[in-house]
Fold this protein.
Amino acid sequence: MRIYISVDMEGVAGIVDWAQCIADGEDYALGRDLLVGEVNAAIDGALAAGATHVMVNDAHSVMRNLPPGALAGRASYLSGRFKPRYMMEGLDSSYDAAVFLGYHAAMASPGVLSHTYNPRAIANVAINGVTTGEAGLNALVAQHFGVPVAVITGDQHVGPEAAPFCPGIAAVEVKTSISRYAASHEHPLTARELIRDGVTAALGRLESLAPPSIAMPAAIEVTFLSPDMAEQATWIRDVTRTDSRTVTLRGDDPLRLFQAFITLVFLTRSLIETR
Ligand SMILES: [Zn+2]
């Protein structure tokens, strides 16, 4: 059994602030320790379910948050920036299941450190009319390769947000969001236990899990913070302006749709104010 783990950081128990999850943040060392603990719990859970290969794709910020030698089970590690498939780089049809670890809520949600790919550019994303966070967008890649998404971990918002796009996905709630910068957390040891057991259980019923099946052709609606970002987004093929700050991206190929969305994320970075 080959298992793919896409690792974000904002959804890890104990994390509530950017200072804990950006490399030059004053509390990054703590955030990183908490992250390693949860990643290893997911790896252990996969191994207990019979995994013979585990790939960890570091998908947070500059995407080199994990000390490779600290990964359990001699898991393979994919790291670094400017990956064309970003949070889903490295996934292919040889994998039996994917796990989304340490995920956070969509920008439109009150979850901890909520955002959708870029908090300084994107106000909302909807696929076929349903608001989505990163899980739903990443599900497009899993759909292309026919890989089910078995588990998502994070606060109480990530499971319900992923459910419309990832059929049968199990949610492991390691903290309860109180506001965008506050949460009540499970103790890290409890969070790790929940993740390990949750992953083992979900992979144990893999036979009953189906890959994402988002209806195609699909429409991805992206609302930006400013109209000039929406204007710039229309420079990409198959993107049309639908109102002052919103564009719609249409297509019938899930992987092309995902890559067009990622292009739009990269492109609009040029318009972000740094003050
Ligand atoms: Zn992140």
